[in-house]
Here is the input.
Amino acid sequence: MSHSRGGPKGNFDLGKYIIVKIEKANHNFEMIVDPEEAWKAKQILKEMRQKEQNHEITVDDVLSTSEIDLESIFPTYDFFLNVKKGDRVTESDLENAFGTTEERRIAADFLLEGDFAWTKAQREKWLEKKRKQIINILARNSINPQTKHPHPPKRIEKALEEARVSIDINKSAEEQIDDIVKRIQAVIPIRIEAIQMAIKIPAEYAAKAYNTVEQYAQIKQSEWQTDGSWIGMISLPAGLQMEMLDKLNKLTHGRMQSKLIQK
Here is the structure.
């Protein structure tokens, strides 16, 4: 087992790196990682898990994923009992705990199962990004059930603050939406809703308008009339209704027709 890329010797300053810890065979092991690169890789793994819901992500999956570069994540393949003290792990300890001394396989295991000591600044940065994602999802997919109109993003942002909603850094924005809607319902009337709508577009605008509709909605039924006009039955998030209709009205110079279909 070599450490050709160098690494910390004895006591050292972590600098831009953070520590990742993992418990195996009743021992705690540590490595140092680049937090930005590790975070990117963790998001890739999260996406893989979402796509392969019935498949457990393994070390082999990590090693075969071209988007994950272990050399960028781990500045060195040194393994420690305590990084800050410079207490290194023996090869026999690695073999007993991980069933191998192959450095990349062990590093991949750290990436999969390790506990990362994200810094406060990193957590705040990533939480803010996730908060903006949540606000965007709510603005596009929810309505005020009293007015049937979407809430503007600023109103949703204020509701999150008033309801003191905590964003979970370890969950995707989509996973948190249902719970967050329940929390902010105490502050504003809000409901996630999809609406059904019938649309008719005159022939001279039909092709371009059809492409616009596809960007916003799921087309349930589609009929091209003998005069070249298009009639569609669509379903779309309630919060996108006004935006889509505005674009279609501009495109057709106000000649399109639309009708909400009551469920």
